[in-house]
Amino acid sequence: MNIFPIRTEADYEKALSRIEMLMDAEYGTPEGDELDILTTLVENYEAKHFPIPACDPVEAIRFRMEQMGLEAKDLTPIIGSRSKVSEILNHKRQLSISMIRNLHAQLNVPYESLIGA
Known about the structure:
- The protein has helices at residues 9-22, 30-49, 57-68, 76-79, 82-89, 97-107, 111-115.
- By secondary structure, it is an all-alpha fold.
- It folds into 2 domains: 9-49; 57-115, lambda repressor-like DNA-binding domains (434 Repressor (Amino-terminal Domain), Orthogonal Bundle), CATH 1.10.260.
- Helix 1 (9-22) packs antiparallel against helix 2 (30-49).
- The two termini are 38 Å apart.
């Protein structure tokens, strides 16, 4: 097992090819260990070179609403008045800390999605 840092696109492609070959490796075997190490290296390379942009909080809320079959009016107990809900969903008002807490607690929207970080 010769494992090296992934520094270039060619290194990255080579690591992906090797991971594909090792996908059926059993845990605790030398091949399984190699797969584990390569996967970690690839994840690190991808985090540096292909970062995932921050989520738009309104899109996160809309996504959860769709998943749960909710309408804007269903958010009034969580966010406040219908006008506040409308302003939030139309990007005319920022989420407050209490709104973020309520959306997380009641709809299980991740904090990271709500703060756009």
